[in-house]
Amino acid sequence: EEGFKAISPAEFFYKNKELAGFSNPARALYQTIRELIENSLDATENYGILPTVKVSIRELEKIPEGGYYEVVVEDNGVGIPPKYVPQAFAQLLFSSKYVLRQSRGMFGLGAKMAVLYAQITTGQPADVIVAPIKSKHIYSFKLKIDIKENKPVILSFSVTSNLHGKHGTLVRLVTLGDWSRAKQRIYEYIKRTAIIAPYAEIGFRDPEGNYILFERVIDKLPPPAREILPHPHGVDIETLKDIIRAKASKPIVETLKESFQGVGETTARRILEEAKIDPGKKSGELTDMEVEVLVKTMKNFKDVKPPRADYLSYLGNEIITAGLNKVFEPEFVYATTRKPSVYEGHAFIVEVGLAYGGKVPLVEKPLVLRYANKIPLLYDEGSDVVIKVLNESIDFSVYEIEFPAPLVILTHICSTKIPYKGVGKEAVADVPEIEKELENAIRDSLRELRSYILRKRKEMEEIEK
Amino acid sequence: EEGFKAISPAEFFYKNKELAGFSNPARALYQTIRELIENSLDATENYGILPTVKVSIRELEKIPEGGYYEVVVEDNGVGIPPKYVPQAFAQLLFSSKYVLRQSRGMFGLGAKMAVLYAQITTGQPADVIVAPIKSKHIYSFKLKIDIKENKPVILSFSVTSNLHGKHGTLVRLVTLGDWSRAKQRIYEYIKRTAIIAPYAEIGFRDPEGNYILFERVIDKLPPPAREILPHPHGVDIETLKDIIRAKASKPIVETLKESFQGVGETTARRILEEAKIDPGKKSGELTDMEVEVLVKTMKNFKDVKPPRADYLSYLGNEIITAGLNKVFEPEFVYATTRKPSVYEGHAFIVEVGLAYGGKVPLVEKPLVLRYANKIPLLYDEGSDVVIKVLNESIDFSVYEIEFPAPLVILTHICSTKIPYKGVGKEAVADVPEIEKELENAIRDSLRELRSYILRKRKEMEEIEK
Ligand SMILES: Nc1ncnc2c1ncn2[C@@H]1O[C@H](COP(=O)(O)OP(=O)(O)OP(=O)(O)O)[C@@H](O)[C@H]1O
Ligand SMILES: Nc1ncnc2c1ncn2[C@@H]1O[C@H](COP(=O)(O)OP(=O)(O)OP(=O)(O)O)[C@@H](O)[C@H]1O
Ligand SMILES: [Mg+2]
Ligand SMILES: [Mg+2]
């Protein structure tokens, strides 16, 4: 009575799909495309494969709210082991990215939200075809989501021989969308993805029959992101209890050394000494009190190396300046990649690129291209930390910039965890450490621009004399 | 292998607690307080009880990140049946508000996030004491959340006699927080709650030992919100399939009449005729194809009454103007409650209040007080639909307002579903229908203000002659 009930994650995100970016047919079409492309890039780049991604949107029927579209995204990635395919596409909160490694995906929701929205708007199942990289077979699935139970429903399954050694994944959905309202953003998303991924080939066929190919311009992948152990400063009671449960019979000093980055024999012993815990005590025998004291001690222990960032995958000067040059043909271009920094135990790197003059259009405020873990962020600028920094901490006149001005600012944040404000991955929260790094990187870039502007002004004055 | 795994909703929101507003100790303390207060107001107001809510925050220990606080929130509400208490406080996605009725709560997460954050930062269980309204007993629980399994852990349970006929709920948590950084917002939240709930008594004892009592100034509750059947225009395939499953043996014409608002015998028959479905066919025997056609037909059926809004609970002129007068002592005050409107099958009402001059401070842009389902929204203004309307659609000079000006704008949106942008309930999404209603209500209010300003100006000119 009283209506008390539990719901599954699928029912939760079905009722509140706008939390995941599916707030109307246009946004839903955009979100569907981007979630699938992000999965394809994760499945190639992180595995040493030069990405080839084919995207197609075909209009099947026009209706008052927009239209029904067939969406197909295909890649040459590592594929997915068939036993995991049903859950990967039809069970929410299922993922291979719940590990401490930089990737575009992080929530275990993207593919499922696309499948869910298609299912509730058209009743159509998702087609998923995988050719796992070492397999001799190709597996085809027709899937729906049992929303009440958050479980896959396998409508059909078949296996064929993989005669040509193909590898990758193809996802096909029939979904409600609104191409006319989503068109500009979808094109912008793909273009902005191509700008910073010149090693990727992306083909896109749109509902109007247009085909555009973003060719691969370099044949070399950046070094991939790697998995890392958690950092002592990011630990909390639950995480430590989990670790202890997994290594219950080991001495606590061994558990600390094996489970955290930057903690060797000496550091582990010093931490345990400060926490007044016998290093030889079996991990599983620590009392709740001892666990709490140990967490406090680790969080506040000064002598640990900062979190490693050599396992992060940043863009770098070359890619940022090449991308800005290609799109804007500016007079002046500059890029900077900051040293790594830390927030709540997660290492992160901030990068900023600047383009000025030349064919950059005149704008009333800087044209900002935001990226996080190599994903272009196009919506919710108003609540993003980058815009906050630009509005609250930067006085452009100090840098000889008066609007309207021909100025583009590109920002990239990469980390083992991007603190997004929402599941739809559009805005990054104003974590103080990230805000500070952005401010420094932007100021540094604007100083370079100012030197250029002043030098040019001087040259002009010389000429006029 | 490959790290594929499923996680529970508890583990998801534990890893991504900033999605729920728990992004740092100061925000977490604020979110903890507001989630508990919102639960207390829902548990009184909606049940015809004049709310008496007691809030206390006591500092137990200062630490580098802020402090450990004991938070206690107690109310005289309907309480909770003891069999549901463990899940209500220690199982995510469990709620009595998953129904179509206006309330502050809607996600089934608020109380659990507060319990979760306290548990992972201090290791302390939550104390929950309930005196259910018709019961002769008082039930006390000590609860923790089994995060992996998203299940309650009952550490202790006891029953005592309820000798004085008390009813209500008390929640006590020991949590990490940062009072100095959260203080201003917590006070603002409570004040803004009191402004629009003059029938509520709210006592607040803060960590510095200060005590403030917001007294009840009227002894009459507004008419409570009521539960309503879904509207045909808001239906989708999954919802209709659910309804059909529950009434499988009934003729489809009966199922439609019983399950949707505004659908009587004639409308039901006309809808089925257009969908080419026999009205007498058993609901459970409809094919998938028929369900899809029926959904399409219902969504587009013009002749249905618009969603009812007489079951929504709005503030009204009296409360809005009294609140603005009390806080700002303005020279001019005005309030308007719009007729109901609809988005995606949910009825909503927009209300706007204006205060100008008198003791209203001079501001560079309007001081905006946003509310949704009677909850004050204090953060994320930059991504809220109200601010979007003010920035993009309102030219204040047209209304004789030149900044700096002494202008306050209060907005309230109430609905069976508020389209929040995030689980932390701080910003409302720019749903087109809501945006339009806000714009109309704000323009209407500003026109009234302009008449006042012009009239005053004329009087001044007369005087100066
Ligand atoms: N194209 C693909 N190639 C290989 N694996 C894929 C592909 N698409 C999805 N997957 C697998 O399915 C899982 C679920 O994808 P999904 O998009 O739902 O979540 P995610 O990418 O892990 O996180 P997020 O919700 O942030 O996108 C992924 O973790 C990945 O293991
Ligand atoms: N003070 C209270 N008095 C009575 N019932 C309460 C109280 N606090 C919580 N509950 C019950 O516990 C349930 C869970 O509360 P919780 O805050 O987690 O979710 P919610 O209020 O339903 O939704 P939201 O996450 O949006 O707040 C509520 O739906 C309500 O039934
Ligand atoms: Mg993904
Ligand atoms: Mg609640």
Map the helices and strands.
Two copies of one chain form a homodimer.
Chain A: E1 5-6, H1 9-15, H2 25-45, E2 52-63, E3 66-75, H3 85-90, E4 94-95, H4 110-122, E5 126-131, E6 137-146, E7 151-161, E8 168-177, H5 179-196, E9 201-205, E10 211-214, H6 237-246, H7 252-259, H8 265-274, H9 288-300, H10 317-328, E11 332-337, E12 341-343, E13 346-356, E14 367-372, E15 375-377, H11 385-393, E16 407-415, H12 432-464
Parallel strand pairs in A: 2-9, 14-16
Antiparallel strand pairs in A: 2-3, 3-8, 5-6, 5-8, 6-7, 9-10, 11-13, 12-13, 13-16, 14-15
The complex binds adenosine-5'-triphosphate (2 copies) and magnesium ion (MG) (2 copies).
One adenosine-5'-triphosphate is lined by residues 35, 39-40, 43, 75, 77-80, 88, 95-97, 105-112, 169 of chain A.
Short description:
With 465 residues, chain A is an alpha+beta fold.
Can you offer a commentary on this structure?
The structure is a homodimer of 465-residue chains. Chain A has 465 residues and is α+β, with helices and mostly antiparallel strands. Helix content of chain A is 34%, strand content 24%. Chain A contains twelve helices and 16 strands. Chain A has helices at residues 9-15, 25-45, 85-90, 110-122, 179-196, 237-246, 252-259, 265-274, 288-300, 317-328, 385-393, 432-464, and strands at 5-6, 52-63, 66-75, 94-95, 126-131, 137-146, 151-161, 168-177, 201-205, 211-214, 332-337, 341-343, 346-356, 367-372, 375-377, 407-415. In chain A, the strands form two sheets. An eight-stranded mixed beta sheet of chain A has the order 7-6-5-8-3-2-9-10. In chain A, strands 11, 12, 13, 14, 15 and 16 form a six-stranded mixed beta sheet that branches. In chain A, helix 2 runs antiparallel to helix 4 (110-122) and helix 11 packs across helix 12 (432-464). The N and C termini of chain A lie far apart (89 Å). At the A-B interface, strand 1, helix 1, strand 4, helix 4 and helix 6 of A face strand 1, helix 1, strand 4, helix 4 and helix 6 of B. Strand 1 (5-6) of chain A pairs antiparallel with strand 4 (94-95) of chain B. One magnesium ion is lined by residues 35, 38-39, 105, 110-111 of chain B.
